[in-house]
Amino acid sequence: MIQAVLVGLLAWAQSSSNPLGWWLIREPLMAGFWVGLIYGKPVEGLIIGAAINVAFLGWNSTGGANPSDLYSAGLLGTAVAIQSNMSTEQAVVVAVSIGVIGNYAWILFMSINSMLPSIQDKYAEKGDVRGIMLIQAIPSQAVVILVRGVPAFLAAFYGPTVIDGLLAAVPAWGIAGFNTVGKVLPAVGVAMLLKYMARNDLLVFFGLGFAVSAYMGMNNLLFGAFIGAAMGYIYISLQPKEVTVNAREEDEI
Amino acid sequence: MAEKVETGVALTPKDIEMATLRWWLMSHLSYNYQRMQAGGFASMIGPIMQKLYPDKPEEVIAGLKRHMMFFNTEPRWGAVIHGITIALEEQKAKGEDISEETIIDLKSSLMGPLAGIGDTISGALYKPVLLGICLGWASTGSFLGPLVFAIGMLGYDYTITRLSIRKGYQLGTTAVTTILEGGLFKKLTTFFSIMGLFVLGIMVCKFITVDVALQTVVAGKKIVFKELFDQIVPKALPLALTIVSWRAIMKGYRVINVLLCLFAFALIGGALGIIK
After folding, report:
1. What is the number of CB-based contacts under 8 A between chain A and chain B?
2. pLDDT for the residue numbered A63
């Protein structure tokens, strides 16, 4: 029981989304060591964690879309494997499948948090910096406890059976719905940027960027920035010279 | 040059250090689909705005709203943007003619490219190499593995973040002065608008990954709607969602309501198998 509570707390700290969690606990190599420590087998935990980590060697989070969840795979994979005395090979198989389920914790975290910027907007309207910071730091930790800490405690306490049960409890259409939410919500952020950046005389460049990306499947933003910069340069070069002369004269007055 | 009103408020190195620390610890705390790291950016720059405008609360409010915009970059290398932004805000507070749009355009056009660079260096080069070395130790049961990894990553993370902000601040301070004296500012604003809007067009396809999932069978022939759409305008759905949200916000609908509508649309559409 106490060990399961500790695993739950470890899962919370691991997913608290700051550098201490990322580098001290996130990587299966690190998580395996801590879980091993909780169960009094640090060396075994470390070896299992390292084996799981090899499967996630190329894992890289960009823009919040991941194939499998690194957090739960290492932490819960090791917790389940140590308790059931699995071989490291078995542990890796279990860990990867846990990671697939664990992705929903990530999607939930990002989705529930999507309410927070709107609350921060209200504080911004009042110029309340402290309020923005509090909303930045506190509520999301409750979300982490809910979607990470509690499931980790249950998984450590009841073992692998509960993990299958958790997945079976959610209907397929519910999962499909939630998967879609994360793919749609960034539209709000892009729309807000567009509101501030759109100049009627330059809106064609937004369309151009979209067209290039949509028809050619090119979504490398660095390449896009180079092309955009080149177009910006050309556009400015083609402007009539008198504009800048006027600006200079005004400056000298 | 036009008459400048010197407010006399200058940032100290300590302000930059504290901003660095805030960003380092808070960047992802409320990470979310709606605006990614915006809250982290606002938390980073909030106290700076208060310091720059001790007796102009309306300017602090404008600044906070400006920095609650959608923001997403690699938190370490991308922090160059934070340094440049702090420098621009400082110059603006000192009375330089820097528009709000310039600051937003600059942030938006740089965040993607720097994320590309940062993700490659941090995620595809540094971390896998360090991890490979440490996994070698760990798999033999040596505690050197986790120890070296933790120190190596924490040290790298903080050092690069701090360096990026400092360099960006220096660059912003010197570059802004040079540009303003050369009367280039109007040109540069247009330049960044074009670059920013072009990149934003690509972001529609990159970040909004929803697609049409509807299929139907007519007279024994399967019709996949996605294929039909793709032949006319691929990614039409992300574009439509963006335009509709944009027009709604422009018409004065509150962002939270737009968000809730999209949330419901996605949940129901996904559950019914119309979109995926």
Report:
1. 417
2. 41
